[in-house]
Design goal:
This protein has ten helices and two strands; from the N terminus they run H-H-H-H-H-E-H-H-H-E-H-H. Helix 3 runs parallel beside helix 6. The termini are far apart. The chain has one domain: Up-down Bundle (Four Helix Bundle (Hemerythrin (Met), subunit A)), CATH 1.20.120. Strands 1-2 form a two-stranded antiparallel ribbon. It is mainly alpha-helical.
């Protein structure tokens, strides 16, 4: 049956998108890399949807999905953070030779903490039965979009403080550590996956998507970190709001 291969084909397109994104990162073309990560995430959403609709979900599909996500939403953002840290222009006169070597040769590798955190997140997701209708910790695709937006903001910032923050290696290392932590934190987050055609059952997801669309229209790529923060805050508020 052809239909049983459709979800896995979409997953493979996700993986291919991640591989192409890697090539663009190596060539310092972050815009095209971002575009292919978005394309990979698009395929990642629809492969699961197709598997559910066609009723061809399988253990192999689950593992393949995580392997593809590891590249698109794990390796690519880790490499982007590495390149960000590597490319920062520092005031060498402030440091001795040993300190200069440490910052310029060692710190960039900390960017791959994002990749390590993504691998742990994906492995936990595969065995965590609590994450069928919601998430525990920030999903790797959302984290990838967050990290991928940083160099785009840095190259086309609106406010001076954005450049000041994103050109600071300490801030970037802090973002890296936060990224790895929030993906694996015991923090319940709502899912955007629709389980029913009923409007009332999807109002939270629709509200969030509406806010996100508005912010993207106004702020463009600069809206992405804000959207991720809103997603986290909305989830925390919902978690701590007593059910009637």
């Amino acid at each position: 049956m052809i239909k049983k291969h459709i979800p896995n084909a979409l997953t493979m397109l996700n993986l291919l998108s991640g591989l192409i994104a890697l090539i663009f990162v190596f060539n310092d073309n972050i815009q095209m890399s971002f575009a292919f990560v978005c394309l990979g995430i698009f395929f990642d959403f629809w492969d699961g949807f197709a598997a559910r609709v066609l009723k061809v979900e399988s253990p192999i599909g689950l593992q393949l999905d995580s392997l593809a996500d590891m590249v698109t939403s794990g390796v690519v953002p880790g490499l982007v953070m590495y390149k960000l840290l590597e490319g920062i222009q520092m005031n060498y006169e402030q440091y001795q030779v040993t300190e200069e070597f440490f910052f310029m040769k060692t710190v960039p590798f900390l960017g791959f903490i994002i990749t390590l955190g993504s691998g742990l997140r994906l492995a936990k997701f595969n065995v965590d039965t609590r994450q069928t209708d919601s998430f525990i910790g920030l999903p790797t695709p959302a984290n990838a979009l967050f990290i991928m937006s940083l160099p785009l903001i840095l190259s086309n910032y609106t406010f001076e403080w954005e450049y000041t923050l994103l050109s600071n290696p300490y801030v970037l290392v802090g973002i890296t550590l936060f990224s790895a932590y929030i993906m694996n934190a015991e923090l319940p987050l709502f899912s955007l996956k629709t389980k029913s055609k009923a409007l009332g059952e999807n109002k939270l997801a629709l509200l969030f998507l509406g806010i996100s669309a508005f912010l993207l229209l106004i702020l463009q790529v600069e809206a992405i970190p804000l959207i991720i923060m809103i997603y986290l805050l909305m989830s925390i508020i919902i978690k701590n709001t007593p059910k009637k």
